[in-house]
Amino acid sequence: MFETDSDFYPDETVTSLAIEVIDELRMKMLECLLVVQTLPDAADLNFTDLANDILAAHRSTLETYQAASIVHQGAELDERWGNGLSRPKAIFARHNAAVRRGATKVTPAPALCDRLERHLYQLPRPDRTQTVAGQRPKCSALVKSTGEDCTNSAIYLGSGIFGAHCYSHATPEEREQYRVHHEKNDARQARSHNDLRDLQRAVGEKISAHWISTREHRIQWVNDIMYN
Question: Which of 167, 164, 166, 156 is nearest to 126 (CA)?
Answer without folding.
Answer: 156
